[in-house]
Amino acid sequence: MIDGILHRVRTGVHWRDLPERFGPWKTVYERHRLWSADGTWERLLQQVQAAADAAGDIDWDISVDSTIVRAHQHAAGARTGPPPALTDSKGDEALEHQDETPWQSLVGRLVEVVQEARAWVVHAAASPARST
């Protein structure tokens, strides 16, 4: 039973693909599930660690080599100070709408886009037709 569970953990095969030599896959699965739920695996690990520690087989010192700890690609070149001050007219507009919710800002921007589109249509209609 334990060999079947260890084989599954070691190889990563699906429970249903466990070789027949370990017995019915469902029995192996159920035993593993029950032992995981009732803490049998944790107790077993603690006992093995205690026995190995008493025998001096475990070195509890930890050494971390920072060369193997990689930063995420987006971590490179991040700002270290505050963002640059906005100096154009949009900056004043941003301060004006600072207390708006994102939804209100979106609706406001959509209104602006519609107004710009209408102005463009009026301008295009007033322009003389071009022929090539």
TrEMBL record:
InterPro entries xref list: IS402-like_dom, Transposase_6_like
Region (Disordered) residue spans: 73-101
Residue ranges, compositional bias (Basic and acidic residues): 89-100
Start and end residues of each Insertion element IS402-like domain: 1-44
Superkingdom classification of source: Bacteria
Name the UniProt record assigns to this protein: Transposase
Organism: Kitasatospora saccharophila
Lineage: Bacteria, Bacillati, Actinomycetota, Actinomycetes, Kitasatosporales
